[in-house]
Structure formats: structure tokens, C-alpha cells
Design a protein that fits this description.
Elements: H1 3-15, H2 22-33, H3 45-53, E1 58-60, H4 63-75, E2 81-86, H5 99-109, E3 113-118, H6 140-154, E4 164-167, H7 169-172, H8 177-184, H9 189-193, H10 196-203, H11 210-213, H12 215-226, E5 230-234, H13 238-250, E6 257-261, H14 288-296, H15 303-310, H16 315-326, H17 332-348, H18 350-365, E7 377-379, H19 380-383, H20 388-395, H21 401-410, E8 414-420, E9 423-428, H22 438-449, E10 457-462, E11 465-470
Parallel strand pairs: 2-3, 2-5, 3-4, 5-6, 7-11
Antiparallel strand pairs: 1-6, 8-9, 8-10, 10-11
Length: 472
């Protein structure tokens, strides 16, 4: 069994246990966090290719071709040449920016040679990918400052000591106009204009400069200069990366493989990409508590893509954990705390991750509803025979009652919360409970939790809405 396989076996056992337990989660963070440093050279070429493919959108021309090239290089006693281009356009970095670095780290630990290409020349043009307007050019001072900040913030996810740094001004600055014209004569304009972002800008009457139009050519010349085996980029970079393949063929080189990575959705769950302009991001410079709290605020549906993007969990481990949420043997809040802990541990270490977890629980999870203020009241004597859906409609103004209650329950948002001197117990109510009599559900819940009627305070919670149940 490989070292990774041994780690997966240990983590799988932990994931089957109680993830509300601090001890279990701490052990899990130690196990999965250690994988960020584990040697992956013992994986076969096929296993390496599949591990990379599991976290990418697309590999061109295919995963089998990646495995084949790994095997060829291994036979020659070499690793693949991997390239990632960085245009240092900002000093502050968020979690969306670390996705390619995590993939690069895997390549690095597989024994391959990583080159980080600093786009000091192209940054002065500005990559137009995904833009609705022209991006302002940067100065040399801007680039140097942004690059220093980028490395400092991304360092927890990637070993910058084991890479080669190149600057594309080395070959682009001396490129002559006759050389450029000769190259452009072989590239159809239609190929440059097929980009959706270019078409949208032109249709909207927005400006599109010649420098932006030539950006894919400049990036492709980077691939020609470095002659790497693989180039990484976001899914929105696909056309730029494919231009690299085309120019390499024109120069008689073996075309690079293209590996594209997902664009991470922002924390607000609107579907928009994580970005500072939308405020839906998690800054790498934020405190441990802020990072933990920001991730805890995400919609439940984002847990799976976030686990895939930022942790070293395998597909099987993520599937097992999310399956437990679906069958209600694992509360989604507990899985989300594990996710938040993974990210904080990567940035600040396990000790601070567990401290942030404890702080969050103290501030939110265990907060007594008696501190909230005046709440709506449900009289169990008056409304006990009515269904929970009906009670929600009357007291918390859910309309229409049955469908709204079922929808909230389906999202694990319908709960009975029982507060006693010993603490707070939150019980998720399945969808079927929404149409059952309130008194029956409360009685069964109290019995299942071992709480004697009258020894605590009961609250009915639907999403963010809360009502106190009296007469229980």
C-alpha cells in the first residue's frame, strides 16, 4: 500500500466516527493535513494522472495522455515540466487563488519540475479573460509589490523553495515586429475572436484594444519559450492555453498538455465567482477566527466543491462524508466545521484551527436563545395537536405552510432545540416530521435525547426563524 493509501485508510475510519467530537476532528485534521507534505513519487503514472484529474475540469488531450507522458519521463529518469503563469495583478490574495497552487503542489510531490512564470511583461497588458472592460496596466513597482505579497500569502499551500522562477520579459521584450508579423500570419483572426468575453464586449460596444487581442499570443509564446509538458490554468483560460498548443506545433515542438481548474464560487452562494469586487471571498490574510466564520456562513451545497478545492481529501472520503449528511447520520454543521478547520489548519496550524472551532461554538452553536430577546411563543396546549407546518404558518408566518416547512426540512433547517442547565441540544427534524402533530414530535424528541419534560426550554427553529414552545 502506498503512503497515501495508508493515510486514506486512517482518515476513512475517522470520518465514520462522531465529527461533533473535538478529539475526532483534531485527529482528522492531523491525518489529512499531513498529506500536504506526503511524498507521492510511489504512485504509478496512472495513479498520478488520476489524482490530478480528480481536481481538474479538463485535461487535454486526455488523462491517458498525461499518464503516458509521465511514464515516458520516468523511463528517462526525469519528471514532467509543469508551468503555471502568474500575472501579479493584486497584492491581496483570496482562497480562490490557491486552487492551482494545490494542484502544483501535488505535481511537485510526485517528482515533477514546476516552473512559475511571472508575467511581468504580460501584466503590463492585462489578461482580458472574463473581463467586461479593459484592465489597467501595471508598473514594474506594482508587479514587484504584488508578487511579494502573493508568495507570502500562498506559501502555506505551496513550497516556493522547490520551483524555478522565470519572467516572460526575457523573451517577449526582445521580440521584434517582423517576428510578430510572421507569427500572426499563421493565426486566423477568427480564432482570436471566438472568445466569448471578446464577443460580449464588442456586442456591448465596449473597448477592445489590440494589446488585449494579442494577449493569447503572448501567453502562447511563453509555452514555446519554456517548452513544458503541461500548462495549468483556470477554466476561463482554456483558449489561451490551447493557443500555446497551436504555437508549439507551428514551431515543431511537442504540444503541451492543458490542465484546467475550476473557478471557485463565492461564499454568498449566488453562483458568482469568488472575487474581492463582489465581497464573496475569504482573504488569506484574514485571522483564523474570520476564516473559520466565513466558511461556516456558506450554503451547505458549497461544502463538496470547497472540500474538493482546498483539502487533500480524496473523492471517496468526500463522497462518504456527504453521504452521511444525506442519510442524516452526520449533521451538515459538523461537516462544515471540519471543512473550516481544514482551511484554518492549512493557513495557521491545527492548534489555531481548534481554537477557532472552539470560539465559533462558544459564540454561535451554544448561544442560549434566552439571550436573543423577545421571541414568538407557541403554546403546546393550544397548538400541540396541529402539524408543525401549521404552527409555522401561524406563528412564524410561513406561506404556504406545508410546502415551506417541507422545503426547510429538506435542507436540514427544521429543528427542535432543547436548552437545559447542561447545555443545548439541537435535533434536526426530517421532512416527514413537518406534517406531524407538534406535541407528538416534541414528546418523541425529548424521549430520544433523555430530557425529562419540564426540565428544559424547547424552541422550534425553521431556518433563521425561532419560536419558544411553552407548556411542554
Amino acid at each position: 500500500m502506498t503512503r497515501l493509501g495508508e493515510s486514506v485508510a486512517r482518515a476513512t475510519e475517522l470520518l465514520s466516527q462522531d465529527l461533533s467530537s473535538d478529539k475526532t476532528v483534531e485527529q482528522l485534521l492531523e491525518e489529512t493535513g499531513s498529506r500536504r507534505y506526503i511524498d507521492l513519487t510511489d504512485l504509478s503514472p496512472t495513479e498520478q494522472a488520476e489524482l490530478i484529474a480528480s481536481r481538474t475540469v479538463e485535461i487535454l488531450p486526455g488523462v491517458a495522455e498525461l499518464a503516458k507522458r509521465i511514464e515516458e519521463r520516468r523511463g528517462a529518469g526525469q519528471g514532467l515540466g509543469i508551468k503555471l503563469g502568474i500575472d501579479p495583478t493584486a497584492a491581496d490574495v483570496h482562497l480562490g487563488h490557491v486552487v492551482p497552487m494545490i494542484i502544483l503542489s501535488r505535481f511537485q510531490r510526485m517528482g515533477h519540475d514546476v516552473t512559475l512564470l511571472i508575467g511581468d511583461f504580460t501584466a503590463k497588458i492585462g489578461d482580458p479573460s472574463g473581463r467586461t472592460a479593459e484592465r489597467p496596466p501595471l508598473t514594474d513597482e506594482d508587479i514587484a509589490r504584488n508578487l511579494a505579497g502573493y508568495q507570502d500569502q500562498v506559501r502555506p499551500f505551496f513550497d516556493f523553495e522547490k520551483v524555478s522562477f522565470r519572467q516572460n520579459s526575457e523573451w517577449l521584450a526582445p521580440y521584434t515586429f517582423p517576428e510578430l508579423l510572421g507569427l500572426l500570419s499563421q493565426v486566423p483572426v477568427s480564432q482570436l475572436l471566438q472568445r466569448e468575453d471578446f464577443r460580449n464586449r464588442l456586442a456591448a460596444g465596449s473597448g477592445l484594444t489590440m494589446s488585449e487581442l494579442l494577449y493569447p499570443i503572448a501567453q502562447a509564446l511563453d509555452s514555446v519559450a519554456l517548452e513544458c509538458d503541461v500548462e495549468l490554468g483556470g477554466a476561463d483560460q482554456l483558449l489561451n492555453l490551447q493557443m500555446g498548443r497551436k504555437l508549439m506545433e507551428l514551431r515543431g515542438q511537442r504540444p503541451q498538455l492543458v490542465v484546467t481548474m475550476p473557478l471557485i464560487e463565492g461564499t454568498d452562494g449566488t453562483g458568482a465567482k469568488m472575487s474581492k469586487s463582489k465581497g464573496n471571498y475569504v482573504a488569506l490574510s484574514a485571522t483564523a477566527d474570520d476564516v473559520f466564520g466565513k466558511i461556516m456562513s456558506i450554503p451547505d451545497r458549497l461544502m463538496k466543491p470547497y472540500l474538493e478545492a482546498w483539502t487533500e481529501w480524496t473523492d471517496a472520503e468526500i463522497a462518504a462524508a456527504t453521504a452521511r449528511v444525506e442519510d442524516r447520520s452526520l449533521h451538515p454543521m459538523d461537516l462544515k466545521k471540519a471543512l473550516a478547520g481544514e482551511v484554518v489548519a492549512a493557513l495557521y496550524g491545527i492548534e489555531k484551527a481548534m481554537a477557532a472551532r472552539a470560539g465559533f461554538v462558544a459564540q454561535f452553536s451554544k448561544k442560549s436563545f434566552t439571550d436573543v430577546g423577545t421571541l414568538p411563543v407557541v403554546d403546546a396546549g393550544e397548538h400541540g395537536a396541529e402539524s408543525i407546518a401549521t404552527v409555522l404558518s401561524k406563528v412564524l408566518e410561513f406561506q404556504p405552510s406545508a410546502s415551506a416547512a417541507r422545503r426547510v426540512a429538506k435542507q436540514n433547517g427544521l429543528r427542535l432545540v432543547i436548552e437545559t442547565e447542561g447545555g443545548q441540544e439541537s435535533v434536526v427534524l426530517p421532512e416527514a416530521q413537518a406534517v406531524r402533530p407538534l406535541a407528538e414530535v416534541i414528546a418523541e424528541t425529548l424521549a430520544s435525547t433523555g430530557v425529562t419534560a419540564g426540565s428544559g426550554t424547547v424552541y422550534l427553529k425553521a431556518g433563521r426563524k425561532i419560536a419558544q414552545v411553552r407548556g411542554v
